[in-house]
Amino acid sequence: MIPSMNFSMSVKSCMRLCTSNTKVFANQCQSICTSGTVCHQPAGANLKTRQAEMMAKGLPKKKAIVGVKHILLVASGKGGVGKSTTAVNVAAALKAEDDSKEVGLLDADVYGPSVPLMMNLDDSPLLDDNNLMIPLQNYGIKCMSMGFLVNKDSPVIWRGLMVMQALDRLLRQVAWGPVDYLVVDTPPGTGDTHLSLIQNVPVSGVLLVTTPQTAALQVTQRGANMFKKLDIPIIGIIQNMSSVECPNCQNHVKLQSHSAKTLMHEIDVPVLGDIPLDNAISEGADTGTPVIISSPDSPQAMAYKTVAKEVVKYLNEKELTSCH
C-alpha cells in the first residue's frame, strides 16, 4: 500500500505513483521504505534495482561446488556439431598443458550421455565415507555421467524435474575436489539444464561450439545471447569441422564459405580455435582414446591445446582482475 500524501501537479514537474512505492519527479525519485525513510536516487537506477530484486525472488542462490575452482560450460545451440568430442579433448588438453592441475569432466547430457564411450569408462562409481560418489578416472581426468548410473542400452525417460534432480546429484553428491577445471558437457539447446547450471553454480565461462554452416551459426548466436542476458561470460567460440586435410598435399580445404568469424564480430567474442573434420578425432571418440592422448603432437591435438591455452589465459586474467 502507498502511504497517503498531499502533493500537487505542475506543468514543469510531473509525478507518477508506481507499484514500487516510488514518487517520481522528472529525473528524481523519492522512495518511501517501510522504515519511513525517504531516499533520493535517479529514477532509472531505482527502477533497475527494483527489477533486479524482483527477478532474484524465488531463484536459487548460487553455491560453489566443494573443492572445484573453475566451472567451464561447453555449449552449442545445435546438436551434432561435435560438442561432446570437443569437451573431452579440451579437458584432456587442459590436463596435458599442466599435469599438476586437477581436471574434471561432467556429462550433463542426461538423455544422451557420451562421456562413458569417449573416455572408455563403463564402471559404476563407488561411494566414499561421506556417501558421495567417487568420480571414475581415465587419463588423469575425473569423470561423472548419468551413463555410469544406468545401463548403456536403457533410455532415460524422465520429465524435466527429475532431470534437474539428477543433475543436482551429479554436481553436489560427487566427491569432485580438488579440481582446478571442471569441464561440463551440456546438451544442445538453451533449456532447463543450462538454466539450472547457471542459477545454481558459479560459472567461470562458456565455450561455444559450432560448425560453419549457417543453421549452426544462427542457433549458436541464440545461445550466446542467452548467456549474455544472464551475465555469464563467454570465453570464446570453437569452430568445429570447418575443413578437411588433403591426403596428398596436406593442404586444408574449407567445407563451407561461411565462418564463425562472422559470428565473432556479431557477438564480440573471439574464435579460440579451428578444428578440422578428421578421421583421427572421430576414431578417438569412438574408441575412447581422445586424439590428445593417442597423437599428442599431431596438428589435431595441437588445435585443442591452443584452445586450452586460451582458456587458461582467460581464467588467469580474470583472477587478476578480481584481485584488483
Automatic annotation (TrEMBL):
<dbReference type="GO" id="GO:0032981">
    <property type="term" value="P:mitochondrial respiratory chain complex I assembly"/>
</dbReference>
<dbReference type="InterPro" id="IPR000808">
    <property type="entry name" value="Mrp-like_CS"/>
</dbReference>
<keyword id="KW-0408">Iron</keyword>
<dbReference type="GO" id="GO:0005739">
    <property type="term" value="C:mitochondrion"/>
</dbReference>
<protein>
    <recommendedName>
        <fullName>Iron-sulfur protein NUBPL</fullName>
    </recommendedName>
</protein>
<dbReference type="InterPro" id="IPR044304">
    <property type="entry name" value="NUBPL-like"/>
</dbReference>
<dbReference type="Pfam" id="PF10609">
    <property type="entry name" value="ParA"/>
</dbReference>
<dbReference type="GO" id="GO:0016226">
    <property type="term" value="P:iron-sulfur cluster assembly"/>
</dbReference>
<dbReference type="GO" id="GO:0005524">
    <property type="term" value="F:ATP binding"/>
</dbReference>
<dbReference type="InterPro" id="IPR027417">
    <property type="entry name" value="P-loop_NTPase"/>
</dbReference>
<comment type="similarity">
    <text>Belongs to the Mrp/NBP35 ATP-binding proteins family.</text>
</comment>
<keyword id="KW-0004">4Fe-4S</keyword>
<dbReference type="InterPro" id="IPR019591">
    <property type="entry name" value="Mrp/NBP35_ATP-bd"/>
</dbReference>
<dbReference type="InterPro" id="IPR033756">
    <property type="entry name" value="YlxH/NBP35"/>
</dbReference>
<keyword id="KW-0547">Nucleotide-binding</keyword>
<keyword id="KW-0479">Metal-binding</keyword>
<dbReference type="GO" id="GO:0140663">
    <property type="term" value="F:ATP-dependent FeS chaperone activity"/>
</dbReference>
<keyword id="KW-0411">Iron-sulfur</keyword>
<keyword id="KW-0067">ATP-binding</keyword>
<dbReference type="GO" id="GO:0051539">
    <property type="term" value="F:4 iron, 4 sulfur cluster binding"/>
</dbReference>
<dbReference type="GO" id="GO:0046872">
    <property type="term" value="F:metal ion binding"/>
</dbReference>
